[in-house]
Amino acid sequence: MTQESPNVQKSGRNAAGRSEMANLTSKRQKQIDRFCWQFLQLDSAPKIPDDDTLRDAEAQDVLYRRLFAPDAVALPPPPRYQLRILKQLIAKIEACITDWDEHGISDELMMSLSNLLSLRLPDEAAAAQQKCYVTYHLSKLGREGRDPDAHITLLESRSLISAGGTTGLRTWEAALHLGQYLCANPGFVQNKRVLELGAGTGYLGILCAKYLEAEHVLVSDGSEDVINNLPDSFFLNGLQASTRVSPLELRWGHALVGTEEQAWNGGRRVDVVLGADITYDESVIPSLVATLEELVDILPTVTIIIAATERNRKTFQSFLDVCEKRGFAVANESFPVPSRSEQDGPFYNNENAIHICKLQRRPK
């Protein structure tokens, strides 16, 4: 029997969770949904529902069944995170109750807290180095009626730099923002063959292959550790047997076609090149742009879309300068980062500008 990915196995429980909320008001349901989505994404400060919602026994029951009941979540957040958030949740429920004869705290939530407190948890330093499951809710697909339960689950190293020295084992803000842009503009990848550069966890490639109907996605990276982790990412999202997505080791600045190859990628076309948060290191930008040049030489009609977080103006300007020197025109797409209060998933920092750049080589 073919092994199913955890996301496929859990689809029935997700539907059950939605039906349990049918009796809640839309305002309360929206607050609970948002809290659950932030929780599953390991948001450091999820927005806890308001007092009226927390006092409601049915709302507490839904929170328990969706997040803390045994086997409620196939791939749950780490216990240390669960404990911290559940403590905050129960403290706020307790603080908002003014009449204990009328309202109370769910016995099931209290039991969940007791169970978590009884566990032997790693210390903060050890926990920071452990990989953990992170689930990103794709709100744009739900709002447009395509898939209200659309999500991507990944096994990530949440520390800034993993033990192997790579930043590619977590999903960064620019990938999440570019993903939202593509969900709003699916025609960019629908029925197209896509190459993702510096893919890291594979978030964008999985999004394109699973939800945006790309014909095929080459998910590439220059790190061997990252490439070795991609099959796990595919499996977690039900793509383990898919012919739509495949990993590729690709090092920027190295020739794409070797002496024994007649054509790159077996001569198969690529229509779209995507990259997110791949311009953060000024030293690698020349190699990145050199690879883009070679791709355009091979694929003259290719569309290139790069999402760049402007953490440092000098670094982003360096990217623009190298593009200008190599003959690329860079056009910024208008797609502002939403404020945190406007985000329904995925959730990401809105303090830095994230530029979505379309590159086109000028005629020589």
From TrEMBL:
GO terms for cellular component: cytoplasm. One of its GO terms (biological process) is methylation. It holds the Pfam family Methyltransf_16. Residues 1-24 are annotated as: Disordered. The keyword Methyltransferase applies. GO terms for molecular function: S-adenosylmethionine-dependent methyltransferase activity. Keywords: Methyltransferase, Transferase. Residues 1-12 have a biased composition (Polar residues). This is Methyltransferase-domain-containing protein.
